[in-house]
Write a structure and sequence with these properties.
The complex is a heterodimer of chains A (about 475) and B (about 250). Chain A is α/β, with parallel strands linked by helices and about 475 residues long. Chain A is about 55% helix and about 10% strand. A 6-stranded parallel beta sheet of chain A has the order 1-10-7-4-2-3, sandwiched between helices. The radius of gyration of chain A is 26 Å and the shape is elongated. Chain B is built from 13 helices and 8 strands. Chain B has helices at about 10-15, 20-30, 45-50, 55-70, 80-95, 100-110, 115-120, 140-150, 150-160, 180-185, 185-205, 215-225, 235-240, and strands spanning about 5-10, 35, 75, 110-115, 130-140, 160-165, 210, 230-235. In chain B, helix 12 links the parallel strand 7 and strand 8 (about 230-235). In chain B, helix 4 crosses helix 6 and helix 5 (about 80-95) packs antiparallel against helix 6. The chains are: A alpha/beta (about 475), B alpha/beta (about 250). Chains A and B meet through helix 1, helix 15, helix 19, helix 20 and helix 21 of A and helix 1, helix 2, helix 3, helix 4 and helix 8 of B.
Chain lengths: ~475, ~250
């Protein structure tokens, strides 16, 4: 059928993938539960987080202008990009103007979204990924499979093998420490030699013009402090009014993502190096990217702009836990990805994503900013139906059912006939049901009773 | 106590696949002092259309169902997902139509999942229902749990059943992979999810599987049977109605 189903089938057949995803997501789920229990009134904190984002999204223009003015006053330059291509072009032009041959990049989902790694390669610029997980997938020539742990689809054993094959002085033992040391040796010199540092931003603080990034390895600092030029790419929805708002969001982010009270490294940057500063880049550029965000606000997806990219929805998603992130086929996986990918790649290409969901509501239950993900997914299904993107057999089937459902007497006749034909297949369990082989391929179907409830009720049965 | 006139909405799945759930609901509601009416015009609440994106059909079925249910004091449904559709989604999908929105809200406010109705509204308990010593695992079906907050009510009611011991089930709040049309549209993913659920049920050591939604039950019981696991499955209301000694799901009647 579709690319999605094929990818999902391949993922389901991959036992190692399953183990890798379960390890990380399972741990994250358990740790989040503990952190949330220990947080006094987490539900109210979530309401507040959602309200902060809603306020900003409703007054986006105001806060962006305020942010720009303050960032410029601090010595940074602000660039605006409407599309992914525009954003990449701005970054490449800046790198070229700086005469850069290599860039140090710290993990940024926006960078993945706009295709920056690819654009850098095309421009002949060497890219050093400073994030351990990004380094792993760069070596493996893959894409991130999770927004917090880009290499979560790989087991430790697979990473060890990869390092042994690709590092110049690989590790001897298979411990995490040895592997990290091997990556550090590999990356340090390259990182320190990079001309430009590129990072994303977790929050943009409007009233100071500061950028806030969080990492667990401190690599964002390494990618940004030594080079002469710092480029920050950020989605326009990343804005918060003030530091106080940023700290509230940070508490929600860390707990939802990993169950930690705070991320290991939380860094605020305001402008480039000032006279008298001991380090810091000489130039700082901030590229603010729209790439569909304004249209999301106008097209009923404003709530999705609250997303702080914590990954809780995917960690708790039964579908993600079975198929991992790559099966989704876009930059963002899991429930949030199923809402975002149709915006970025078009619904025709990604109509499977909003459909491949049981609508069980767990993602909404854990989302720290209360995004009604199932409702948004249903919205995509409606659009897909209106535009005729659903498979014809499915439309026809539902159409026949709907016709009868509006006509109770005929409905009873038709369902009575269907039930009788089903009973012909057996009493007790039916192990092969024509027209429902999606069901009986994997499980048995209980044979229905002799007559429907309504038929028996009308004959006077009461218990 | 007053004798409320209650509409029993049996759900299309119960009507077709397991009528005894409907009769169990009828019996318990009567035992709880209600005058029960089964409106004849009922077919389906429209959830399959709603979740498939066919908004026009969903709206049409919502209007029909609302009009049918308006005359009653309360509407009771042996399914968290259908009750959730009427309670949470009808007002949502009719939001653009002020007259129908008001009618949807009025029906929404008096619609109950059966466990919530029996426990919270009627304060009913299953008197003298006994079983031989039985260990039961209870699965919290998603819509009931997250749209309606059904969690404590069935457990309170089940506690009153003598001989029944509720054992812990790992991941009891995790979706079983049914998801309405999901299980036929993405059978392989759905299967992977229900495999895990079945393994957790086996691990729990339960003899009995209970839940409040027939769709989930058919999914889990069908999987357990395919795996050759002799766990018997019932809708919670069947057990509470004292029908736990009858044929379990998939057993020839
Ligand atoms: S949708 Fe919510 S849970 Fe998912 S990544 Fe965004 S903020 Fe986190």
């Amino acid at each position: 059928m579709s690319g999605f189903t094929d990818r999902a089938d391949a993922a389901l057949a991959d036992r190692i993938l399953k183990i890798a995803v379960e390890r990380t997501a399972g741990t994250a789920e358990a740790k989040r539960a503990i952190a949330v229990d220990a947080f006094p009134d987490f539900d109210r904190a979530r309401d507040r987080a959602a309200a902060i984002k809603d306020h900003v999204i409703a007054h986006l223009g105001y806060y962006l202008e305020q942010f720009e003015a303050n960032a410029v006053a601090a010595g940074a330059r602000v660039h605006w990009a409407r599309t992914a291509d525009e954003a990449c072009r701005i970054v490449i032009d800046l790198c070229k103007a700086a005469g850069a041959r290599s860039v140090a990049r710290s993990k940024s989902m926006l960078g993945e979204e706009i295709g920056l790694p690819h654009a850098l390669a095309e421009a002949g610029i060497t890219r050093v990924e400073t994030d351990l997980a990004e380094h792993i997938i760069q070596l493996a020539d893959e894409r991130p499979s999770h927004i917090i742990w880009p290499a979560m689809h790989k087991t430790r054993e697979q990473v060890s093998a990869l390092f042994k094959a690709r590092h110049r002085t690989p590790h001897e033992e298979e411990t995490i420490a040895a592997m990290a040391e091997s990556a550090r040796r590999e990356l340090r010199t390259q990182m320190l030699g990079a001309d430009v540092g590129i990072s994303g931003a977790n929050f943009l603080i409007a009233d100071t013009g500061a950028i806030c990034t969080v990492t667990n390895e401190g690599n964002a600092e390494l990618s940004l402090v030594p080079p002469r030029m710092q480029i920050v790419t950020a989605g326009i929805e990343k804005i918060v009014p003030s530091m106080a708002h940023a700290t509230h969001m940070l508490r929600m982010l860390a707990r939802s993502a990993t169950g930690a009270a705070l991320t290991q490294y939380t860094t605020f940057y305001t402008g480039p190096r000032r006279p008298g500063d001991r380090d810091g880049p000489e130039e700082m550029h901030i590229v603010l990217v729209d790439n569909g965000r304004t249209t999301m606000r106008e097209e009923g997806l404003a709530e999705m702009l609250r997303c702080i990219r914590c990954g809780a929805c995917m960690n708790h998603c039964v579908v993600f836990r079975q198929i991992g992130g790559h099966a989704y086929g876009g930059t963002y996986p899991g429930p949030m990805g199923a809402v975002l990918t149709p915006v970025l790649d078009g619904l025709a290409k990604s109509r499977d994503l909003p459909n491949a969901c049981t609508l069980n509501g767990k993602c909404q239950e854990v989302c720290p900013v209360r995004i009604p993900l199932p409702t948004l997914l249903r919205g995509w299904r409606e659009k897909s139906w209106r535009e005729g993107l659903e498979p014809k057999t499915m439309r026809a089937g539902l159409g026949v059912w709907a016709w009868f459902a509006r006509r109770p007497a005929l409905y009873r006749m038709a369902s009575g006939m269907a039930l009788r034909s089903m009973r012909v297949l057996g009493r007790g369990w039916i192990s092969k049901l024509p027209l429902a082989d999606g069901w009986t391929a994997h499980r048995d179907m209980p044979a229905p009773e002799a007559q429907s409830f309504m038929a028996q009720y009308k004959k006077g049965r009461r218990r | 106590m007053s004798r409320p006139r209650v509409a029993l909405f049996v759900t299309c799945l119960v009507d077709a696949m397991r009528p005894r759930i409907g009769f169990a609901a009828l019996a318990t509601l009567e035992a709880a002092g209600c005058e029960v009416v089964v409106p004849e015009a009922q077919t389906c609440c429209g959830q399959p259309a709603l979740n498939s994106g066919d908004r026009a059909t969903a709206e049409d079925l919502a209007r029909r169902t609302i009009a049918m249910l308006e005359p009653f004091e309360a509407v009771v449904i042996p399914s968290g997902s259908c009750a959730g559709t009427i309670r949470s989604h009808y007002p949502e999908i009719l939001e653009h139509d002020p007259e129908w929105l008001a009618r949807a809200q009025a029906v929404s406010a008096k619609t109950y999942e059966i466990m919530a109705y029996l426990d919270e509204v009627r304060g009913w308990r299953p008197d003298d229902v006994t079983l031989p010593a039985t260990k039961a695992a209870y699965h919290d079906s998603c819509s009931g749990l997250r749209e309606l907050g059904i969690k404590a009510q069935p457990r309170r009611l089940l506690k009153a059943v003598e001989g029944l011991d509720l054992v812990p089930l790992k991941g009891e709040e995790t979706c079983c992979g049914f998801g309405g049309t999901f299980c036929v549209k993405y059978p392989a993913i759905s299967n992977a999810i229900v495999e895990e659920k079945a393994a957790a049920i086996e691990e729990s050591g339960a003899d009995l599987l209970l839940a409040g939604d027939l769709g989930c039950l058919m999914n889990m019981a069908g999987k357990l049977h395919r795996r050759g696991t002799p766990v018997r499955a019932f809708h919670t209301i069947e057990l509470l109605a004292g029908m736990g000694d009858g044929a379990a799901i998939g057993e020839p009647a």
